[in-house]
Design goal:
The chain is an alpha+beta fold. The chain is built from four helices and ten strands. The protein has a five-stranded mixed barrel with strand order 3-4-7-10-8. It has a two-stranded antiparallel ribbon with strand order 5-6. The termini are far apart.
């Protein structure tokens, strides 16, 4: 009898543990605010990483839900940009919306598709989500990006940048949230990565 009681207790603890660590999947917006971007002038900061020369174009502060994460190893630019994050804010941080959308990444692109009628118009999907090429400024930031997982709500601060490498075309960040296709991704020099508790979901 004691063994049965212990087994039931262990099962309950396992269930409780799964519930504790499971990402918040309740309906409601989890990252309500739009990214904040401020354009910079000729005195903008400059950086370097892995032989690339990097020029800041705009300061950038974004709080968003991680929709998908891709680690690049063999990509020619992996030393500069080890991680791409697909992120969403506003309606694209709402589990009710996201349940209808399949999200994937590959070849430095972010893809989404849905079946049936989406809960929000396509233009809202486009302007409330992004594929971000992330350049960590330090080992600590790179470790934080490594820890980030799908459904985490994170705050990234730093700069949208242009990166150049000898005998390569410049790699320039998008500066718009409404563009699509090649060149529409944000290339970000990340100076901080903060994990945020989920706020009470907004309807």
């Amino acid at each position: 009898m004691k063994r049965i009681a212990l087994a039931l207790l262990a099962a309950c603890l396992c269930v409780a543990g799964v519930a504790w660590f499971r990402p918040d999947d309740r309906p409601g917006v989890r990252a309500p605010d739009d990214p904040v971007q401020q354009m910079l002038g000729s005195d903008a900061p400059r950086f370097s990483r892995a032989g690339w020369q990097i020029r800041a174009l705009a300061s950038y502060d974004i709080t968003a839900r991680v929709l998908h994460k891709k680690r690049y190893w063999a990509d020619p630019s992996a030393d500069l940009v080890p991680y791409d994050f697909a992120v969403g804010w506003g309606p694209m941080s709402d589990s009710t919306v996201l349940r209808q959308i399949d999200i994937s990444q590959g070849n430095r692109f972010y893809f989404w598709e849905y079946s049936g009628n989406p809960r929000i118009p396509q233009d809202q999907i486009i302007c409330h989500s992004a594929n971000m090429h992330l350049i960590p400024c330090s080992g600590a930031v790179e470790r934080a990006l490594w820890w980030a997982s799908k459904n985490d709500v994170i705050r990234l601060t730093g700069y949208l940048v242009e990166a150049t490498y000898p005998r390569c075309n410049p790699w320039r960040s998008s500066l718009s949230r409404t563009d699509t296709g090649n060149g529409a991704c944000e290339l970000m020099w990340v100076e901080s990565c903060e994990f945020l508790p989920s706020p009470p979901p907004r309807p």
